[in-house]
Amino acid sequence: FVLLTDEADPEASLDLLAKGRRNNPDSWKILLESGLTSYLGYEDYAAASTYFRMASTRPGAPEYLGRYAAFMTEQAGSPEAALVLWTEALERATMPEVRERIEKRIADLRQVLAEKDRS
After folding, report:
1. Which pLDDT value is given to residue 116?
2. Got the DSSP string for 10-46?
């Protein structure tokens, strides 16, 4: 993260994180940092989503990573895939206020997709 923020070198950051992923394949934290670097350093929503999704499946990963993946997928312009990820996030969410926000996001996406189908 220091390479990305202090040195303004997202390429070096991703290179170092790639080495970390190879040596620590179960680390959700390294995948989270990879997603953040993809997003903040390159605005690469698809790559960020992939890293967040991978991170969400690792042991000990916080449940919010699935929401990060869904949001990035949506930003990447894939509402259908985002809907799947939001639905998965809803299944894992335990806090009522989080569930409510996810349900609203799902309803909004369904409306967008329905309008897209009509056009």
Report:
1. 85
2. HHHHHHHHHHHHHH-TT-HHHHHHHHHHHHHHH--HH
Residues 43-50: contacts with CB within 8 Å, 24+ apart?
A: 45/72, 45/73, 45/75, 45/76, 45/77, 46/72, 46/73, 46/76, 46/78, 48/72, 49/73, 49/76, 49/85
Single pTM value for the model: 0.89
Residue 61, C-beta contacts closer than 8 angstroms, at least 6 positions apart: 28, 55
Distance CA 54, CA 58 (A): 7
| pLDDT surpasses 80 at 7 | no
Cα four-point dihedral sign 108, 113, 118, 119: positive
